[in-house]
């Protein structure tokens, strides 16, 4: 739901539909429910409704972690997602109130904040899911790095740094869906690498796990840079395009390196160090 909300938000902003409701929030053109036809008003309204339902589900997830037998870190991740949810709602409301409640709200700074907070919520929910699922495994570890490589590579097709397709609203939504899938794979890879470095995984040495964690973290930083550059936060000159392309290349290379190390460790049948070791 949150991944879809991200894509809807990008599509809404890219089509200019965020300003379609006459700078009103929570109403839309003086209506609670606009005409249910595909038009800018409907796109903005649908985005808001999807966000509201997703918000309630996020609260439900946090509540479930406290009612169920989940560990402290799972509860913390889910609860933090809820804690910053009001900030995301507030920033989202500000971005669509030009000349309304907050004059000049539709600005680069609010767009950047909206994206960063949304990414933080998405990451926290990912961690809650990963940690709440119990102990990882070498198989899940490899799957995570595979998803990371695939997501980043496919996002390059839609990226504005690589002119394969026109960077249309649909392409922008596609870029964020695939890029965020890659991001989630990297988050999982870092989480599993941390666990493997601490307790050991069969077939994956602690040193290999630490190397994979460093590579995945570096890839994540580069990928977040491309996600930020995917929005109109800077005047997208040739220099920024080259920087974007470089960041995308670094993200793919580091994620591929992490996946290759895990594959090599599996092929050589490395055994883990004793569980009690450092």
Automatic annotation (TrEMBL):
This is COX15/CtaA family protein. Keywords: Cell membrane, Disulfide bond, Heme biosynthesis, Iron, Membrane, Metal-binding, Oxidoreductase, Transmembrane, Transmembrane helix. It comes from Halorubrum trueperi. It is a multi-pass membrane protein. It comes from the Archaea. One of its GO terms (biological process) is heme biosynthetic process. One of its GO terms (cellular component) is membrane. Pathway: Porphyrin-containing compound metabolism. It is found in: Membrane. The chain crosses the membrane at residues 49-67, 79-106, 112-133, 140-161, 173-193, 214-231, 243-262.
């Amino acid at each position: 739901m949150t991944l879809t909300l991200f894509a809807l938000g990008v599509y809404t902003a890219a089509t200019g539909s965020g300003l379609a409701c006459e700078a009103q929030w929570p109403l839309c053109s003086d209506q609670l429910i606009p005409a249910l036809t595909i038009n800018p008003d409907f796109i903005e309204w649908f985005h808001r409704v999807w966000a509201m339902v997703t918000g309630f589900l996020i609260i439900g997830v946090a509540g479930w972690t406290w009612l169920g037998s989940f560990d402290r870190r799972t509860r913390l991740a889910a609860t933090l997602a809820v804690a910053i949810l009001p900030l995301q709602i507030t920033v989202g409301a500000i971005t669509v109130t030009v000349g309304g409640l907050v004059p000049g709200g539709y600005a680069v700074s609010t767009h950047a904040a909206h994206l960063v907070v949304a990414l933080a919520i998405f990451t926290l929910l990912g961690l809650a899911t990963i940690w709440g699922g119990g102990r990882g495994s070498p198989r899940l570890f490899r799957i995570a790095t595979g998803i990371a490589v695939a997501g980043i590579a496919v996002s390059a097709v839609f990226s504005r740094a690589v002119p394969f397709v026109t960077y249309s609203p649909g392409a922008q939504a596609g870029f964020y869906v695939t890029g965020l899938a890659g991001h989630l794979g990297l988050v999982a890879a870092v989480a599993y690498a941390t666990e493997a470095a601490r307790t050991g995984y069969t077939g994956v040495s602690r040193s290999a796990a630490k190397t994979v964690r460093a590579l995945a973290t570096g890839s994540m930083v580069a990928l977040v840079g491309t996600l930020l550059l995917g929005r109109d936060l800077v005047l997208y000159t040739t220099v920024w395009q080259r920087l974007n392309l470089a960041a995308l290349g670094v993200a793919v290379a580091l994620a591929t390196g992490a996946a290759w190390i895990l594959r090599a460790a599996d092929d050589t049948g490395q055994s883990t160090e004793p569980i009690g070791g450092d």
